[in-house]
Amino acid sequence: MNNGTTTVFYVDDNARSRRLLSSVLAECGFEMITASDPIEALGRCKKLGFDLALLDYQMPSLTGSQLALEIKFVMPDVPIVLLSGYAVLPPTELAFVDAHFGHGTHFDDLVDTMRRLTKSKPPGIRRSLATSWSDST
């Protein structure tokens, strides 16, 4: 895991989309960790180290925007990219994300943005959440 690649935590409830995008991003050189449910993702965040979160917007239990808030609470420096089927989302839905890609996005734009957002971080320097997680309940 500490081989200089960017580790992406991708959360999407759609299994087909998750498998396809994970596979393509892995071919582009990203190390992929996936979760199918935002609640599961929150639990896994406690144990994972990753460089970027890639979140689907429309999910059960929590939206991608709500999950972004939870991740930013624990890891404020981790960039978050939100994917949605909407071309535009209200600013309130984008408050805790670093980039939003909606309907009509070109794949190359997504990859370029992911690389740009993680470029300023030295590879292999990931913050583990195991010691910094704090329950807000």
* Class based on secondary structure composition and strand pairing: alpha/beta
Give the overall form. globular
Number of domains: 1
Predict the CATH topology.
Rossmann fold
Strand order of the largest sheet: 2-1-3-4-5
**CATH architecture heading:** 3-Layer(aba) Sandwich
| Count of DSSP strands | 5
Into which percentage range does the β-strand content fall?
15-25%
Q: List the uncertain runs.
A: 122-137
Major pleated sheet: 5 strands, parallel
Summed up, the helix count is 4
**Proportion in helices:** 25-40%
Rg (C-alpha, Å):
14 Å
Ends distance: 32 Å
Order of helices and strands: EHEHEHEEH
CATH class identity: Alpha Beta
Q: Let me know the CATH homologous superfamily.
A: Response regulator
Mean pLDDT: 84
